[in-house]
Amino acid sequence: MTLPDERLRAMKHIRPWLTGLATTPMRKLRKETLRAQISYLLKHYPSDYELGRMAEAVPELLKERA
After folding, report:
1. What is the distance between the alpha carbons of residues 11 and 5, in angstroms, rounded to a whole number?
2. Which of 6, 24, 26, 46 is the most exposed place for a label (fewest CB within 10 A)?
């Protein structure tokens, strides 16, 4: 079970990880390392259901387009 602090940590780490990925030359990326990092971040990343609940709770920050 994912705890709220784990979920928040995963969400906070996605942007810097993707930024680093976007700026790293392809020859330096290792498939095994990428898979491990992706698995780690996705393990606690919010599901669609959880994102919907967050959007309901804080609609000024998260809102689906009608």
Report:
1. 10
2. 26
Do residues 7 and 46 touch, judged by C-beta distance below 8 A?
Answer: yes
0.85 cut: is pTM over it?
no
Listed in sequence order, the residues at least 6 apart from 54 whose beta carbon sits closer than 8 Å to its beta carbon are 46, 61, 62
| pLDDT one-digit tens code per residue, 22-44 | 898 888 888 898 899 899 889 98
Rounded alpha-carbon distances, angstroms, from residue 50 to 20, 22, 27, 44: 26, 27, 36, 11
CA–CA separation, 35 and 15 (whole Å): 17
Using DSSP's 3-state secondary structure scheme, residue 11 falls into: helix
CA 57 to chain centre: 19
